[in-house]
Specification:
Blueprint (H helix, E strand, L loop, with lengths): L1 H20 L2 H21 L2 H16 L10 H7 L3 H10 L4 H18 L2 H14 L3 H17 L3 H14 L3 H13 L3 H14 L4 H13 L3 H14 L3 H13 L3 H13 L4 H14 L3 H14 L4 H19 L1
Helix pairs in contact: 1-2, 1-14, 1-18, 3-8, 3-10, 4-5, 5-6, 6-7, 6-8, 7-8, 8-9, 9-10, 10-11, 10-12, 11-12, 12-13, 13-15, 14-15, 15-16, 16-17
Length: 325
C-alpha cells in the first residue's frame, strides 16, 4: 500500500504540473491513468478477503451443529491463513458425502488465494454443477465471481454474484455486486447495492468509502462528502486515513482531506507527510493563512525536501495564473 500511495501521489503531482504548463492533452491522459489506478485499488481492497471471512464465519457458526461441514488439518490451516499448506493438505485429504463438497469448496478457495487459475475454475465449476447443498453452491458462485472480477472479467463476475445472490442474498454478495457494477460503469446499480449493503452492515468503512466514490461518479458530491466523513469517523489506521485523504483531495474536498491528515497524524503517521498534505489542501482550498505557516516551517526544517519544493512551485504557478485572470 505504501508503494501504491507513493506512485499515486507522484502521478497526482505530475497532473498538477501539466495543468500549470497548459499541456491539456497530456493532462487528460494522466488524469485517466490516475482514475484507473484509484479504481484498481478500490476494486481489490477486500473483495476476496471479505468472502473468505464470510466463509470462515459460516463454518464457525454451523460446524458445531452440522456434521456435514468438513473439518480437518487442511481447514485449520486455511482458517489460519496458511494457504500453501492448506492447499497441500486439502488436495490429499478424503471425505464422503456432503463433507466432500465442503472439502472441495475449501480447496477451491485455497487455489483462488494461491493464484492457481485453472485449478480454481475447475473446482468451482465442478461444485456449481454437482453440489447438493445450497450453501456450498452459493459460495462456489461467489468464489468464481471473485476469480473473474479480480482477473478483469467484471461482467462475468457480476453474473456469478447474481447467481449467488439468488440462492442466498448475503451482505457480502451484495457488496461485491456493488463493486462489479461500479467497475462496469453501472453507477446507479452500484449505488443501489451499496445502499442495500449499508442497511445490514452500517459500520464497514471500506464499503462506505467505496460508496462515496460511486456517488462522485454520479455527480453527487454532497452525498460523497457525507459518506467519506462517515468513513473518516470509522477509520483508525494511518494508511486508511491517508488513502481517504488522497481521494478527498483528488475530488476537491480539501477540508475533508485536511481532517483526514490531522487524524492520521494523531494515529502515528509520518508528521512531515501529514503536515505537507494539510498545507497543500489548505492552499488548494484558498486557506493560505493556514497553509503558508506550515509550508514555511517545513521548508526551514527540510530545505532539501523535493516534495515540499515541488508543491510550493506548483502553488506559485497557480497563484500567478489566478492573478492574470
Amino acid at each position: 500500500m505504501e508503494k501504491w500511495l507513493g506512485e499515486w501521489e507522484a502521478m497526482y503531482k505530475e497532473v498538477c504540473e501539466l495543468i500549470t504548463k497548459g499541456e491539456h492533452n497530456e493532462m487528460l491522459t494522466a488524469v485517466e491513468q490516475l482514475e484507473q489506478q484509484s479504481a484498481t485499488l478500490l476494486d481489490l481492497w477486500t473483495l476476496m478477503d471479505e468472502k473468505l471471512i464470510d466463509l470462515k464465519q459460516y463454518v464457525e457458526t454451523f460446524e458445531a451443529h452440522d456434521d456435514s461441514v468438513y473439518h480437518s488439518i487442511g481447514t485449520e490451516c486455511f482458517e489460519q491463513n496458511q494457504i500453501k499448506r492448506a492447499t497441500i493438505c486439502l488436495s490429499s485429504e478424503k471425505a464422503n458425502g456432503q463433507s466432500e463438497e465442503w472439502r472441495r469448496l475449501f480447496l477451491a478457495y485455497a487455489y483462488l488465494m494461491s493464484g492457481k487459475k485453472d485449478e480454481t475454475v475447475e473446482q468451482f465449476i465442478y461444485l456449481i454443477q454437482t453440489a447438493k447443498q445450497a450453501s456450498v453452491k452459493h459460495f462456489s458462485y461467489a468464489g468464481l465471481g471473485c476469480y473473474y472480477t479480480v482477473n478483469g472479467q467484471v461482467d462475468r463476475g457480476a453474473e456469478l454474484f447474481e447467481q449467488a445472490k439468488s440462492l442466498t442474498p448475503t451482505s457480502d454478495v451484495v457488496y461485491n455486486l456493488g463493486v462489479c457494477y461500479y467497475l462496469s460503469g453501472a453507477f446507479h446499480l452500484s449505488a443501489e447495492h451499496f445502499e442495500l449493503y449499508a442497511k445490514h452492515v452500517d459500520q464497514d468503512a471500506e464499503a462506505i468509502c467505496f460508496h462515496g466514490l460511486v456517488r462522485m461518479k454520479l455527480n453527487q458530491s454532497h452525498q460523497a462528502r457525507t459518506l467519506w466523513t462517515q468513513a473518516l469517523s470509522l477509520y483508525e489506521q494511518p494508511e486508511e486515513l491517508t488513502r481517504l485523504a488522497l481521494l478527498s483531495e483528488w475530488y476537491g474536498h480539501h477540508e475533508l482531506a485536511v481532517c483526514c491528515y490531522q487524524k492520521a497524524l494523531t494515529k502515528g503517521a509520518d508528521p512531515t507527510q501529514m503536515e505537507h498534505g494539510m498545507a497543500w489542501n489548505y492552499a488548494l482550498g484558498d486557506k493560505l493563512q493556514e497553509a503558508w505557516p506550515i509550508f514555511n516551517r517545513l521548508i526551514k526544517e527540510q530545505p532539501n525536501n523535493l516534495h515540499i519544493k515541488r508543491s510550493l512551485y506548483h502553488l506559485g504557478r497557480l497563484f500567478e495564473e489566478k492573478q492574470r485572470t
